[in-house]
Amino acid sequence: MSKLKKISGAEAVIRCLLEEGVDLIYGYPGGAIMPIYDELYKFEDKLKHILTRHEQGATHAAQGYSRVSGKIGVVTATSGPGATNLVTGIADAQIDSTPMVCITGQVASNLLGSDAFQEIDIIGISSPVTKWNCQITKAADIPIVLSKAFYIAKSGRPGPVLVDITKDAQFELMDFKYKKCNSIRSYNPVPNYSINSIKEAAKLINAAKKPLIVWGQGVILGEAENEFKSFIEKTGIPAAWTILGLSGLPTDHPLNVGMVGMHGNYGPNMLTNDCDLLLAIGMRFDDRVTGNLNSYAKQAKIIHFEIDPAEINKNVEVDLPVLGNVKQTLDELLNYVDKKSHSKWLNKFESYYKKEYNKVIKDELFPTKKGLTMAEVIKEINNASKGDAIIVTDVGQHQMVACRYAKFNQSKSNVTSGGLGTMGFALPAAIGSKMGAPKREVVAIIGDGGYQMTIQELGTIFQYGCAVKIVVLNNEFLGMVRQWQEMFFENRYASTEMINPDFITIAKGYNIPAKKVEKRKDLKSSVKQMIDSKGPFFLEVRVQKEDNVFPMIPTGASVSEIRLE
Predict the structure, then answer these.
(1) How far apart are CA 390 and CA 430, in angstroms?
(2) CA 66, CA 392: separation in Å to the nearest integer?
(3) Are 492 and 536 members of one domain?
(4) Is 514 domain-assigned?
(5) Mean pLDDT, the chain, integer
(6) How far apart are CA 442 and CA 452, in angstroms?
């Protein structure tokens, strides 16, 4: 606990952030938050503020920062449109369980409810997409509310929190003391696990002949990567990932059998409906993973390892829930499971992979057609970065291709928008990722559509010299929507063709070195040049206009109805 005498509410906000170990925030100033920015100016040696070019960019940057560093992303914005511009990023953080604290300014408390200039009820607006929110009208409440905000954001299943502070509370003087929050009455962030459920799970695992693991981001958020790896190696169970679980286990691990879901790998999707035991570890049975719920793993016993009780039996009825942080539950479980190998069962995944390789993968990674494929670009990035880069993806075809073909050697390396599917995510998230892991290579893979949603954040890269490598896979289409139009709407390309600007000139306008690749012979050397570059670099790759991403599970179909063409 620390104590000072009579400071303003605005200064108290800054001191609260410093007490929480915050040294970097993203934001955009304005009238209602100006007192806090005035204090920021005085503390700039201790707290760095990154001026993004849009408040949404600030939230995505904070998400990227959080996802690679494991810290809480912090965002500041003014009232009215400043606050509403945060909502997409807050919603993205909520569904993808990213810890974030957003601080918004608000009109003076005597003006609340009067429709004053730039007044908006951000508490009401953000309630459905925050883990918790709170409005402060008295300076004295700032320390206790902010300590609570940081605790709630990070504890248990993480998520975004919003604190709205009226302008008069920012000016008001107060006695400052700060005490970190360690518990809140009636809030139990990590449920106690039951040793009986652990033992019951072990029995089912030891008896299973065809077990399959599907793991999600809970492994990464719980920092359970080592326990998870030890568990699969001891039990010999094939393990497949959701897109947010990707990088929790090295890509080349012999028991890593690929991706589940709509554009996942053939084997793990098909064999979901063949396994006798399904272990869901730190994942939430999203519809893109399960396909038609009426035919999802009906033959299997299902064990769900999960920190959030609300996820148990929400989408899929399970036979055995194991509540708790997977780091603890898997560590305990290791004591009760037998050492096994399931080589015959694993061979089944291998045979499905061969089929997928011959039908899809070979032509994507080693194409013989004239046009460049997205997959061969990812392959060259893997080669040049040796699988050590953080890959940040936007949303669309390129996202699915990058998730399918990117190689990862270490955790916290895949940053993407999962549950909300936010186009425009990648560029600002890559900025945050680079600042959260400055010693690592950060490559943003973006489509020409998503890129133009937050292209202004090139200004942030320019201003702060952020060494992000940007790859735009340009097919002159909103590719994923076009694919659906081709497959399900008789080739009616309604509003999906893009007439794009000169991306190279735009990059150069922001003083970012840039290069365009249109021919295969230039790809390898250009990617190497980009990776070897010390500062930021922009690479535009013109890929085939009408390529489709396969395999694919059509909406509403069963996972075992996955199509290879």
Answers:
(1) 9
(2) 13
(3) yes
(4) yes
(5) 97
(6) 20
With respect to residue 563, please indicate whether it lies within any of the assigned structural domains: no
CA-nearest of 401, 465, 394 to 426 is: 394
Residue 370 CB neighbour total at 10 angstroms = 8
Whether 269 and 385 map to the same domain: the answer is no
Has 118 been annotated as catalytic?
Answer: yes
The single-letter code of the amino acid at 215 is W
Same domain, 340 and 400: no
Structure tokens at 472: 């735009």
Kindly report, residue by residue over 273-287, the tens digit of the pLDDT.
Answer: 999 999 999 999 999
Q: Residue 99 — very low, low, confident or very high, per pLDDT cuts 50/70/90?
A: very high
477 and 529 together in one domain: yes
The answer as to whether 184 is a domain residue is no
Q: Tens digit of pLDDT for each residue in 511-549?
A: 999 999 999 999 999 999 999 999 999 999 999 999 999
Catalytic residue list contains 117: yes
CA distance 445 to 426: 7
CATH code of the domain in which 462 resides: 3.40.50.970
Number of structural domains the chain divides into? 3
Please name every residue paired with 178 in a beta bridge, in sequence order, or none if there are none.
2
Burial bucket for residue 45 (CB in 10 Å: 0-12, 13-18, 19+): exposed
Q: What is the pLDDT of residues 225-255, one digit of tens each?
A: 999 999 999 999 999 999 999 999 999 999 9
pLDDT given for residue 535 in this prediction: 98
Residue 90 and residue 129 in contact, taking contact as beta carbons nearer than 8 Å = yes
**What crossing angle do the helices spanning 195-207 and 326-333 adopt, rounded to 10°?**
60
Does residue 38 sit in the same domain as residue 106? yes
Please pick, among 11, 19, 39, 55, the residue that the annotation labels catalytic: 55
Pair (514, 480) in one structural domain: yes
CATH number at 233 reads 3.40.50.1220
Q: Is 505 contained in some domain? A: yes
Range of the domain at 498: 366-542
- End of a domain among 316, 349, 382? 349
Q: 551: cis peptide before it, omega within 30°? A: yes
- Indicate which residue of 42, 46, 117, 171 is catalytic: 117
Report DSSP state, residue 420.
S
Reported as a pLDDT band with limits 50, 70 and 90, residue 59 is very high
CA distance 136 to 363: 58
Q: What is the mean pLDDT of residues 68-84?
A: 98
149-203 pLDDT, tens digit each: 999 999 999 999 999 999 999 999 999 999 999 999 999 999 999 999 999 999 9
Of 131, 167, 327, 515, catalytic: 167
- Give me the catalytic one of 34, 43, 118, 456: 118
Catalytic residue selected from 423, 480, 530, 552 = 480
